[in-house]
């Protein structure tokens, strides 16, 4: 990650790129000009996420204890392993993030705040430049001024208490709970306070939401997905369903569907160049994943109840093929090659169960290929079980299971079409592009925010738009439109140029802006987070984040070979 700073204040007048021509993306850029605030719905969503987390973990532990009391030690061991191992992995990753965030390197960020305070924060510019190795660097303006010492008994005691508190939380496997509670606290604080404190709390809440969504998504596919397949296989082999087994399987399925949809929502909410996902769309997406993953895992369980060895071979082969497909697609999520490979391997695990978009642009072709592959695999697995099932399984029971798999997958596909055709944040999608919902005057298609330079992000993350090329137009006295409507064919809006805002500190990130669904660099690199939060709290005006603007694919290729 390019996060090494020269720390020198530079005039911003010549640093703002004039224009970034839009490349091969036919979709019109979306605009988001209304300032987003933490709402009651956001609070309820976080509370529901906590409820899903507790129900999933508690039902698995309860079922493991029930297996132990029944003297079914193999089922007890497998159930417990799929609870403990993923939880430990997530706790280690969470504590590693905490250790970095709370380490003494935050003092270098305080130095940046001192620079802003000393210069009046009128035209301060903090740049990140890439060193010879990706991932190496330090926070912007580090070393310009010495940070305050860590002396003082009270300060030392507070830091020691925080280290001890976090260590106990992670030892007792409660990192996710703490992060959810902390997200609620930051959201409520951002709602109660006014600017500039509101912006600062909102930044921190978005960063915390990004962390917990990543952790929970990882945990869901390491714990809930294999747990669901295991419990379904046990139920099919025993030809009976215990109440605790049904409860555990249901909780695991809901957790999987919830976290995929929640991850996509948080990802869109964090991007200023993407329209946020409504809760109605999130609920439909949950139903989509609920039924498709349910059909997938049931087909797995049916096949695994008869062909245990071949099921393992199938899973490994499917994972290898999906991982190779993802790597071949050249994803751009992480800051280093090896991190990118590990990320692709993890997404390969997700692809065992459901579709997960990992690239920018049109995904219809890739989704169609994946959907057809999954459909063919489900049919093959269910057919193999139906033909080679045990003698204890009656024909009526077998017919019922086949119908459940088919109907569940059909329902999931139906909700997928409902989401993309009616509730997608970018608008309804037809076979040829965007559907014009209504006719509006051409003058009203412009937005004052579209005059801002490309790849320029303001705080909070969801307040400004990222525009491209020809979209940089505005109409005087017109409020910003939230959902863009394609103008009538042949009509052109009048072009008016506005001088972009140049006051306040600017954080220049010497990297091209990441494409959806990858997070922006400042949501991945924790050093940039510290700089943003320090400047946000120290500067009287909102700091701006400016990414490197690359105009041509050749320039992108040449730039990427140097980082």
Topology:
Blueprint: E1 4-5, H1 40-69, H2 73-101, H3 106-119, E2 125-129, H4 153-171, H5 175-192, H6 197-238, H7 243-270, H8 279-304, H9 308-328, H10 337-353, H11 364-388, H12 395-423, E3 456-458, E4 506-512, H13 521-524, H14 526-538, E5 544-548, H15 553-560
Parallel strand pairs: 2-4, 4-5
Antiparallel strand pairs: 1-2, 3-5
Quick tags:
single chain; 3 domains; five-stranded mixed β-sheet; 5 strands; membrane
Describe the fold and architecture.
With 563 residues, the chain is mainly alpha-helical. It folds into three domains: 38-115 and 160-272, no CATH class; 278-428; 506-561, no CATH class. Helix content is 57%, strand content 4%. The chain has helices spanning 40-69, 73-101, 106-119, 153-171, 175-192, 197-238, 243-270, 279-304, 308-328, 337-353, 364-388, 395-423, 521-524, 526-538, 553-560, and strands at residues 4-5, 125-129, 456-458, 506-512, 544-548. α1 (40-69) packs antiparallel against α5 (175-192), α2 packs antiparallel against α6 (197-238) and α6 packs across α10. Residues 1-19, 21-29, 113-123, 130-150, 430-455, 459-499 and 554-563 have low confidence and may be disordered.
